[in-house]
Amino acid sequence: MKRCKIVSLPTRSTAIEFFSGIGLARAGMKKAGIDVIWANDIDEAKCALYSAQWGVSDLTCKNVFDVDPDTVPTADIAWASSPCTDLSLAGKRDGLVNGSESSAFFGFVSVIDGMGDRKPQALVLENVCGLASSHDGADFRMVVEAFNRLGYSVDALELNARRWVPQSRPRMFVVGLLNPIDGGELDSSLRPDKMSWIHSDESLNTHVTPLPNPPRLRVSGFTKMADELPNDDSRWWNEDRTLKFIESLSEVQRQRFEKLVEGRTVVARTAYRRTRNGNPVWELRDDDIAGCLRTARGGSSKQAVAFLGNGAARVRWMTGSEYAKLQGAGDFKLEGFRESQIQYAFGDAVAVPAVSWLMKNAVLPAIDAQPQKAVFCEAV
Length: 380
What we know:
Elements: E1 2-9, E2 13-18, H1 24-31, E3 34-41, H2 44-54, E4 59-61, E5 77-80, H3 95-98, H4 105-114, E6 122-127, H5 130-133, H6 138-149, E7 153-160, E8 170-177, H7 193-196, H8 222-225, H9 239-247, H10 251-262, E9 267-276, E10 279-284, E11 304-309, E12 312-317, H11 320-326, H12 339-347, H13 352-363, E13 372-379
Parallel strand pairs: 2-3, 2-5, 3-4, 5-6
Antiparallel strand pairs: 1-13, 6-8, 7-8, 9-10, 9-11, 11-12
Helix pairs in contact: 1-13, 11-12
């Protein structure tokens, strides 16, 4: 004789991922207990890196405007790291409507709209903080209104990856929920004025998510994380190139450089190439934190790494491995890809731990995931 009973099993929430890049949002959601069941991107190079990490069974590599909503599976969450090219302070700021790349946001909205009653319980848009000020806030309003038309209440946060990894990388996250949890505080550290104004606009449907304090901003960690290359590695710059690097430093930068060289401990410092008064110069960070990773399409967007101390200075470009570690993805599979491919893909991505924190605290509490039922029997 058997005695049986029905028990509820915990269920992992599911997500669909737009503008997936190489899947760092997926990695962050996985750490938060969320399974990505479908992904989309248009960039073949990023799709190749995504496939190497996650496989190709759930990846649709095509223009978002060509995605048929009927082919997109039902899920609890939709994530979108839409192109930031036309919103970034470093670009021409053509905006959402006129921008040739950032206008892809409307393709995402169209797919969600086309899903009808199957639309996810939550939408998350990740982008540069420049979205908040683009066209004097008009583009940000456009995003909120688009989410509202789809039936979602909106909250907006700013999170810096520096809270988890030694990289200064502030990013904006717009969270839309069908069943929001309200009652949080408008903490300026997470919701600066350029974002929090939406909560005082009665024409918009918004909520303020109750959130715990995130980790404090890190002040060190890059030296420990930096790759240790052999002295004979070809990636080290030769003497002439290193000398040109030093000669381009301003007086203030030179003093910083020399002080670190004279130190008894070798430290790693990142540097960007800037144009000052029409001349290309190098500027060295004064802390043990990397600057914000960028899409490495040109020399000015790449960071150099200077190892200084014990009377010596060695300089090289930042490696693809360091790009991955600075995004919280040091375990990603990079074999078989060129350094330029890795730098391009990781420089245009979101930090893994920022995604995990956001999902655990601002999204999952409002998701009504239905537990699975199972029957267990035992002999009596």
